[in-house]
Amino acid sequence: MIKPPDIEDNTWEMIVAAASGNASKLRQLLERDPTRSQRGYYSMPPIHFAVLEGHAEIVRLLLDAGADLEWNRADADRLIEIAAERGYDAVVAALESARDRLQKLLLAEPRKDHPIHLAVETGDLARVRELLNAEPSLIREARLNGRRPLTTAVEFGHESVVRFLLERGASPTWPERDAEKGRALHAAARAGSREMVELLLAVGADPNGHADCGGNAVYAAKTLEIRKLLKAHGGSLDPYDLVWMDEDEEVIRRITADPKSAELGCGGVFTAVVTRGKHDLLKRLLHAGIRVPALITGCQSYLLERPDMFRTLLESGMNPDTCNWQMQTMLHLCCRGDGRGLPDKASLECAALLLDAGANISAIDDEYSSTPLGWAARNNRPDMVEFLLTRGAKTNLPDDRPWATPLAWAKRRGHTQVIEILERAEAKVQG
Predict the structure, then answer these.
(1) Do 338 and 310 lie in a common domain?
(2) Which residues pair with 216 in a beta bridge?
(3) What are phi and psi of 130, to 5 degrees?
(4) Considering all CA atoms of the chain, what is the largest pairwise distance in Å, rounded to the nearest integer?
(5) pTM: predicted TM-score of the whole model, two decimal places
(6) Phi and psi for 26 in degrees, rounded to 5?
(7) What's the rounded mean pLDDT across residues 64-70?
(8) 178-202 burial string, b = 16+ CB within 10 Å, else e?
(9) Residue 387 and residue 364 in contact, taking contact as beta carbons nearer than 8 Å
(10) Cα-Cα end-to-end distance for the chain
(11) Quick one: 299 and 349 in the same domain?
(12) CB 380 within 8 A of CB 339
């Protein structure tokens, strides 16, 4: 893995400890703050990395600290399935044991939000006061969707409850699920509530904090008045955001003044430019000397949506082995699919462009420990498997993990056509 420039140091330490199996370091981090077990990067919490590498002890430590065995990024397999596919029996046992305990608990008493959340949601200030008087720590209590009471109060427009929670010490910067710097200000700006925006800014809310993939509070602002207010408190829009807002001239102005700003946002300015099909802006950026960075931490696949623009980027000096923080190259991403075995002409075209530009056909990523051919086999892409084989892709590499070879992926997932193609190419299951 490569440390992304925008990741919190504590989050990175947790992920590295989980992935490397460093139990002593992990215990030390959790002792300082058990909630770190639930914080991740791009919707991947530390337990995800412990499962990927088969560290059963780490998995148990994280589960004991409150990690969610069901919460994983939306487009990934469930953790138990990941462990089972890789033959990590001890990890499977740990996850199944935790799941069984959870199911028994749910049968006895179904999981539900603490009453404080209902009181906040309905604006019952007297009940909120009563509950916090009895147990002050409830002010940090997260509900099942990851929201804290302050954010819930903002989302439901209960200003009196917001004021009370702030008086009691609630912070708008407490991390929430997919919002490392809190989402209360984002919610207030999106709702267009100037009063609540001012309240939150007065106690240190960060106007540049992102929520999910919805940008920061400045981008989410419902009115120009609120956007101006947020900017006055240090908020700003990345060139990436400005592309989505069709502020092309401002994109050029910002990047000319600060070329590094081109790398901000979800993967940088080019991901937005390509997915929006802004050919003229693409030419202007390239003419100004801006190039795609070698490391893209998000939204990489946007670059592949328009092969003609992707060709232009490669011809202008884009590294054909550009990858994300988990060493997933653009060629890996060309090999994605929905498992139905359908051909994808655009991704084949982009794959050819990459290989013609010198992309490494045998690159190994960190998440699946697989080559692009392995990805194509895993995702049931017979068209891509055939193409990569004609371009010299090897069916097996000396250091392949047994579960990560192309044929192993295809057989486990029952991709009959891919299996036939690989066996004709004399592919093997290692082990």
Answers:
(1) no
(2) 210
(3) -60, -45
(4) 72
(5) 0.86
(6) -65, -45
(7) 84
(8) bbbbbbbbbbbbbbebbebbebbbe
(9) no
(10) 26
(11) no
(12) yes
For 374-395, the DSSP string reads HHHHHTT-HHHHHHHHHTT--S
**Is the residue at 411 inside a domain?**
yes
Tokens of 1: 């893995």
For residue 295, what are the β-bridge partners? 323
Question: Residue 397 contacts by C-beta under 8 Å, 6 or more apart in sequence?
Answer: 362, 364, 371
Amino acid at 366: D
CB 314 within 8 A of CB 353: yes
311-368: pLDDT as tens digits: 999 999 999 999 999 999 999 999 999 888 899 999 999 999 999 999 999 999 999 9
- Return d(Cα 65, Cα 14) in angstroms, integer: 13
Residue showing tokens 């720590």: 137
Q: What is the CATH number of the domain that holds 176?
A: 1.25.40.20
Provide the H-helix boundaries in 316-405.
Answer: 330-334, 345-356, 372-378, 382-390
Domain boundary among 41, 73, 108: 108
The span from the CA of 362 to the CA of 339, in Å, is: 22
Listed in sequence order, the residues at least 6 apart from 252 whose beta carbon sits closer than 8 Å to its beta carbon are 281, 284, 285, 288
- Confirm if 207 and 217 have CB atoms less than 8 A apart: yes
What is the residue-averaged pLDDT of the chain? 92
> Which domain range does residue 351 map to?
329-431
Q: How far apart are CA 281 and CA 289, in angstroms?
A: 13
Cβ burial of 158 (10 Å; 0-12, 13-18, 19+) is buried
Residue 135 lies in a domain: yes
Neighbours of 105 (CB within 10 A): 11
Q: With 0-12 CB in 10 A as exposed, 13-18 as middle and 19+ as buried, what is 224?
A: exposed
Q: Which residue's structure tokens are 């990560």?
A: 404
Contacts of 226 (CB under 8 A, 6+ apart): 189, 192, 194, 197
Give the closest residue to 297 by CA, choosing from 320, 328, 276, 319.
Answer: 328
* Nearest residue to 74 via CA among 111, 42, 49, 119: 42
* pLDDT at res. 430: 67
Identity (one letter) of the amino acid at 168? Answer: R
Provide the pLDDT for residue 66: 86
Distance of CA 364 to the CA centre of its chain: 20
Half-sphere exposure of 78 (CA within 13 A, CB side): 10
Greater confidence (259 vs 74) lies with 259
Beta partners for residue 44, in sequence order: 41
The dihedrals phi and psi of 295, each to the nearest 5 degrees, come to -120, 120
